[in-house]
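Dissemination and training. As part of the outreach component of the grant, students in the summer workshop were shown how a complex can be specified as a set of sequence lines and then modelled as a single object. The example used during the hands-on session is reproduced here so that future cohorts can follow it. Participants entered these lines:
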Amino acid sequence: MSDPVSFGPDLADVFGPSQTDGGPDLVQLLTPEGERVHHPEFDHDFSADELRGLYRDMVLTRRIDVEATALQRHGELGIWAQLLGQEAAQIGAGRALRPQDYVFPTYREHGVAYCKGVDPLRLLGLFRGVDQGGWDPNENNFGLYTIVIGAQTLHATGYAMGMQRDGVVGTGDPERDAAVIAHFGDGASSQGDVNEAFIFAASYNAPVVFFCQNNQWAISEPIERQTRIPLYQRALGFGFPGIRVDGNDVLATYAVTKAALQRAREGNGPSFVEAYTYRMGAHTTTDDPTRYRLNDELEHWKLKDPIERLKVYLRRNGLVDQEFFDDLDAEAKELGHHLREGCKALPDPKPLDQFGYVFTEMTDEIAQQRDEFAAYLASFEGSHA
Amino acid sequence: MSTQKITLAKGLNMGLRKAMEADDKVLLMGEDVGKLGGVFRITDGLQKDFGEDRVIDSPLAESGIVGTAVGMALRGYRPVVEIQFDGFVYPAYDQIVCQVAKYTYRSQGKVKMPIVIRIPFGGGIGAVEHHSESPEAQFAHTPGLKVVACSNPVDGYWMIQQAIAHDDPVIFLEPKRQYHADKAELDESATPDPLFSSRVVRAGSDATVLAYGPTVKTALKCAEAAESEGRSLEVIDLRTLSPLDMAPVYESVRRTGRCVVTHEAHVNLGMGAELAARVTEQCFYSLEAPVLRVGAFDTPYPPSRIEEEYLPDLDRVLDAVDRTFAY
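and obtained this result:
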């Protein structure tokens, strides 16, 4: 009997054993212990103000998440998609953006929305059921939350192709050159749309950064169900670079995303950033992770908390004092108050509102249905339609 | 007044050119639409004249075509995408029904989706599977989409321009069997009917035949044949399938008392079902017979050697007309 035909190397030889800590290619600038390390390619000279700012952003983002989760528990929201544990990935990516850059989010990018200047209260509307996205996407260059997994990566690519045609890519003018960032998760990486987006972006050299928060879980399915190789290595097969960054390290995520966006703005095409992180909470408030994952894993990732490591670094280097923490605490409380009171005050849509905006102008057909429904409602005594 | 005789393919090509000249935000995208001019040559010569940035050959991925068009629309462009054949639209179905159709509603009117999705549809060209389908009801059933079907060269010329200028997404159905068939006289100085309007294309008094796209020609032939038998058929080209323009239909059926709908799509839950329901609701006391439907059987599109036994033809439509007189 002859030996089986060799069909290339064993994947385990190429990619190494399964890597629970991100592997040797992980870009990191701040260790889980709060140790500042340097990277030959991706680095940034952070000022004390920048560091304090990033810390503040993460603390306030966590506060948004905690408040919204509590609002769901109190019945004020129907559901909430938690970001607990992913603050560094979102703030690092969000702060790397320039005002002219455009964001295409999933439904979990609360931290990026905050960076783009969207009032967090606006995010609650769709989870409360009073609207399906209450902000104007063009006001902050922050798209509406997209619930169909991965669909927005194509929108991002098309938008980036529009930017190319508008002549705002590769002009050399930093105020003018723009890029798009497409957010998605490890589960979405299996979607056809995401793979098509990669192909279109590569084919047209579109200025888009594919930013994947690999939080290890797609509801109950672990990353191994989506991929047999590290996700960032898939990018090469599509013809653009992929980088894996410690998604719990806000400094590294910022530096890597900044470089990726700059590359796109300069006209050098798409890239893929895999922010290696962990979903500390449930998929959403309706999920129960105890059914499918072990507490050990959670405990392991708790030690890598994105906020704690920066806090340690700031303290150890004397960059903050108690007043800083007191002020931030007060600010977070104020934000919580804003969300709690604002959420309860969000007006319910009226029954007849459902007929609006199906089209840019109401058609006669829909106007007729609205009028008939209005007459029907009015036929009940004491109707307030 | 200068006129010229054109085919449907030429009318669409001329209309696309006009739309691109009128607004530089209009982009064309699809498979083989560039150098080749599309497999049916509808975009012939447009890339040469408008450049590769405006007439874009896409990778072979329909969801990618429609999904990136959504992004272009968000950036202020007016993409016109070509789906090469009706049966290939389904990979893009999610983007069409979940994104294209819903963005304006989701954003409470803050975002417009001026996208035209051109689909060559219908059978009769001797093709292999997936090249002869009639998926219109699936889109007409989706709130947020407008669906139109042209039936002749002159309408092709005007309707494509009107669809591109329209601010809502339009599924634009083109009867591919007619692309290079008959010629008609186009007067570019004429004023076209509004896009979302149906039209009486032959006046009659005994029964009303409703048709759109490829079956308009069939219905007109029926009317000719019926006339030789002393029966006067009124033929209405619906042109718009969503929204429907029913006023001319109701007016006609109230006069004739009989109504037959014909389309190439399957009868079950097809456009004919909706039309029959509406006509019955609005013209109940005028009807001498139930509204009858003549369409494809509720079977997949057959091998092409028997497609003429599958598609509604002159005899089957006339047979239905006869049956309305049997009540």
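The beta strands of chain A are 102-104, 180-185, 208-214, 217-218, 221-222, 242-246, 271-276. Students were then asked to discuss how this feature might be tested experimentally.
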